[in-house]
Write a structure and sequence with these properties.
single chain, about 400 residues, alpha/beta, Aspartate Aminotransferase, domain 1, Aspartate Aminotransferase, domain 2, 2 domains, 7-stranded mixed β-sheet, 4-stranded antiparallel β-sheet, 15 helices, globular
């Protein structure tokens, strides 16, 4: 047989796809259908007005069907820079922005500019599994930074883990998988640490638009030299329901974008044009709509917190709750990967175990579960809580 890349072979299968295989061929009772809380992605299409704008672009703008600039549409880069400047304060220019084929690609591009095989990147745990997978594929060592019971990483603990091979620290806030939002002081501490130690701070804010606090989530961009240390990632997928169109973004220095351009040109040549036109239209027209969507998500998080008391009485713990996610600690004498399968069979709930977000053998991951509640309403959340309360191993 022809050879395989050993790094790819050693990389775990995509967790969401793995979880879907657990329900293949299973017939669920009509009065107890499967509740799928495994994937953090909108299931509804973009709003009608956006879809109409996309249809008009397909019919009337021939450039939608052609190659575009590798770093993205100039108008979208400018509009996102304006949006970020307005949202965060400080100064972000179009020359700091590249559009990518989803936020995962933005992360891959950032790492491609930073690290080579054998280098190290610090990932707080629980980590976002696609970040870990990309590092594994590239032969880059993911150094796990435990966040403890509050799920908030500590900059001093990270400082002790930095070696001559460390190239970056990654923060995700609001966090996937935990839902926890990092305070501005936490982000600033990691920025200061990264700058002092000469490494990059990658901040993934895919769920920025569902942050619970008003105003800017941090003050990183107020620093006029932010781009000497910070690499910022963003996604249009969750905000405008554009998951299938794969539109993300990276903000960094123009010098790093010159290297990003090499990566993007080799992988996709350019981001898909139609999704970019949709994102541009959304930035210009959907502020009020997005505000309503944010309130819906915040209401679901509030429902998760408000209805959790009966589970607490049974030994469950709500460790984190925000954006699309609730992160739970279960009370059972069984690892969370076994519990996840049992919940499918006995409770018709498809959720992801903490073992998918932590290093192999991690004791904390074995006690934890992620529930992605963004696609179920308050009634659905109450039903999930009822089924969890009724579960017996």
């Amino acid at each position: 047989m022809t050879p395989f890349n050993p790094n790819l072979i050693a990389t775990l299968p995509p967790p969401v796809m793995e979880a879907r295989r657990w329900v293949e061929g299973t017939v669920f009772e009509a009065d107890r259908p499967l509740i799928n809380v495994s994937q953090a992605a909108p299931v509804d299409p973009p709003p009608d007005e956006m879809r109409q704008a996309m249809a008009d672009a397909v019919l009337r703008q021939s450039e939608v069907h052609l190659y575009g600039p590798v770093l993205g549409l100039p108008a979208l880069r400018s509009e996102l820079a304006f949006n970020m400047t307005r949202h965060y304060g400080g100064a972000v220019g179009a020359e700091n922005i590249a559009i990518t084929s989803g936020c995962n690609q933005a992360f891959c591009a950032a790492i491609a500019t930073l690290a080579a095989p054998g280098d190290e990147v610090i990932l707080p745990t629980p980590w976002y599994f696609n970040h870990k997978m990309w590092l594994d594929m590239g032969g880059i060592n993911a150094v796990a930074l435990s966040t403890g019971p509050d799920l908030v990483p500590d900059a001093d603990a990270a400082d002790a883990m930095i070696t001559s091979r460390t190239r970056a620290i990654v923060l995700v806030s609001p966090n996937n998988p935990t839902g926890v939002e990092y305070a501005p002081s936490v982000v600033a501490a990691f920025r200061d640490l990264a700058r002092r130690r000469g490494i990059a701070l990658i901040i993934d804010e895919t769920y920025r638009d569902f942050h619970s606090r008003p105003g800017a989530p941090h003050e990183v961009f107020v620093d006029p030299d932010w781009h000497d240390t910070v690499i910022h990632l963003y996604s249009f997928s969750k905000s405008y329901r554009l998951t299938g169109h794969r539109v993300g973004a990276i903000a960094t220095s123009p010098q790093r974008l010159a290297e990003v351009e090499k990566f993007l040109d080799t992988v996709t040549i350019c981001p898909a044009q139609l999704g970019q036109y949709a994102a541009l239209w959304g930035l210009r027209n959907l502020d009020n709509w997005l505000g309503v969507e944010r309130e819906k998500i915040l209401a679901r998080a509030a429902a998760m917190r408000a209805g959790f008391a009966p589970l607490t009485d049974q030994g469950w713990q709500l460790m984190g709750c925000g954006a699309y996610f609730a992160y739970l600690q279960h009370p059972f004498d069984m690892p969370s990967d076994a519990l996840a399968r049992a919940l499918v069979d006995q409770s018709a709930i498809l959720a992801l175990p903490g073992t998918m977000f932590t290093p192999s053998g991690d004791a904390a991951g074995a006690t934890q579960m992620r529930v992605a509640f963004a696609n179920i309403d308050e009634t659905g959340i109450a039903e999930v809580q009822k089924r969890l309360a009724g579960f017996r191993p």
